[in-house]
Write a structure and sequence with these properties.
This protein is α+β, with helices and mostly antiparallel strands. It contains 12 helices and 21 strands. 30% of the residues lie in helices and 24% in strands. The structure holds dihydroflavine-adenine dinucleotide (FDA). Dihydroflavine-adenine dinucleotide binds at residues 10-16, 33-36, 41-42, 45-47, 51-52, 131-132, 158-160, 163-164, 168, 170, 172, 333-334, 361-363, 372-375, 378.
């Protein structure tokens, strides 16, 4: 085969496939090189097999990045409505769940099939089971691969982030950046459960409740799940992206109410009711019992001094816990960090110091909240680069 292409895209994931489709439609000769034996592995397992492919309410505030402004341009130019229109063209439909999250009714695989169909129509070539062994740029890019040696004028790195290494995920994008002298921010597991010392939450596994959790200025109110290893559930995954080793998280177990006021007024009305009985009216019974046994004390409300009730109320509204760690890349849904946005054009995603080299998707230091935001960044950044390569 003629091994020179206008554009080579490394990674047949969310960002790479949309970029390939756009570049192909512009008449570019495009090759997508994929290490795995199939495209879109993370899309296939996303959203419990239904893929939370975007969100009705996307804004730059839903993203973490050293430069919070960087994502604005791409998100404004390729929106959630654009991707929904593409699904509609293929007869795909979606269901809206809480917080504006959209899931594909035909399943996640239908989205991969749609992207592959679009790539085929745009004349894009794909090769699987292909690894990049060496990369040079004397004038154009020369790629030595586990199959053919290839060359291209524009090279797009769309290899995602290192979360879930058993799926073959790596930090390849950051390695390429380093190879060309571009700065990166270290990857860190995000959207990941917290772990606690064994025994700390003993007997509480399986309890789920709505709480408000804050850490380093970020605040989320959603469900929390106590597990055998620590804390999980959407609210914990969200806040984990903002957490650094050693930080405390603050959990409001009774969001929307002043717990101290409530305890004091109940003491006046029902002095004989026991604290654990009262707490069980607002919290799961097992949690109320454990709080009174391990963190507070139990007894009829009349036994508690006002000062102690205020302390207990303050703890219920802001329970300070220091996780011992997270479950790490093994279960993280994404990773924060990646190629430093200071090295890239926010309009084209091209490296300013290396003409023709582009980085898109999770490889870039832009990480979304839980709720379809990571795919929307992948679609948007892929689409933008696809207009310029
Ligand atoms: P992506 O990971 O999709 O693609 C990278 C591709 O590059 C892969 O095909 C990989 O095999 C390939 N590759 C890697 N290294 C290579 C190399 N050296 N050479 C060649 N190819 C290489 N997000 C969301 O918005 N909604 C959701 O519902 C979910 N759900 C979800 C569930 C689970 C379990 C995970 C792990 C993640 C999610 N996510 C998510 C996150 C989402 O999957 C992620 O942000 C995007 O897939 C990122 O898209 P990219 O195209 O950047 O990388």
């Amino acid at each position: 085969m003629n091994t020179h292409f206008d554009v080579i895209i490394v990674g047949a994931g969310a960002a790479g496939l949309l970029c390939a489709r756009e570049a192909g439609r512009r008449g570019r000769r495009v090759l997508v090189v994929e290490k795995a034996d199939r495209a879109g592995r993370k899309i296939r397992i996303s959203g419990g097999g239904k893929s939370n492919f975007t969100n009705l309410d996307v804004s730059p505030e839903n993203y973490l990045s050293r430069n919070p402004h960087f994502c604005k341009s791409a998100l404004a130019r390729y929106t959630q409505w654009d991707f929904m229109a593409l699904l509609s063209e293929h007869g795909l439909t979606w269901e809206e769940r809480e917080h504006g999250q959209l899931f594909c009714e035909q399943g996640a695989v239908a989205i991969v099939d749609m992207l592959l169909d679009e790539c085929a129509r745009a004349g894009v070539e794909l090769i699987y089971d292909c690894e990049i062994l060496a990369l040079e740029k004397p004038d154009r890019f020369i790629l030595q691969t586990s199959r053919d040696d290839l060359s291209c004028d524009a090279l797009v790195i769309a290899t995602g982030g290192p979360s879930i290494p058993r799926m073959g995920s790596t930090d390849f994008g950051v390695q390429v950046a380093k190879r060309f002298g571009l700065k990166s921010i270290p990857f860190k597991p995000a959207l990941v459960p917290f772990t606690f010392p064994s025994g700390f939450l003993a007997g509480l596994a399986g309890i789920s409740l709505e709480v408000e959790v804050s850490c380093n200025g970020a605040v989320f109110r959603e469900q929390m799940l106590i597990t055998h290893r620590g804390l999980s559930g959407p609210v914990i995954l969200q806040v984990s992206s903002y957490w650094n080793k050693g930080d405390a998280i603050s959990i409001d177990l009774l969001p929307g109410m002043d717990a101290a006021d409530w305890l004091q007024s109940e003491q006046g009305v029902r002095p004989n009711v026991r604290l654990k009985t009262l707490l069980s009216e607002k919290l799961p019974r097992r949690l109320a019992q454990a709080l009174c046994a391990r963190w507070f004390e139990d007894g009829p409300l009349q036994q508690f001094q006002q000062k102690r009730l205020r302390e207990i109320g303050a703890t219920l509204n802001a329970w300070q816990l220091v996780p011992s760690g997270t479950e790490g890349m093994r279960t993280a849904e994404v990773a924060t960090g990646g190629v430093d946005t200071a090295e890239l054009s926010s309009r084209t995603l091209e490296a300013t110091k290396v003409p023709g080299l582009y980085f898109i998707g999770e490889t870039v230091d832009v990480t979304g909240h839980l709720g379809g935001y990571n795919f929307q960044w992948a679609w948007a950044s892929g689409w933008c680069a696809g207009q310029f390569v």
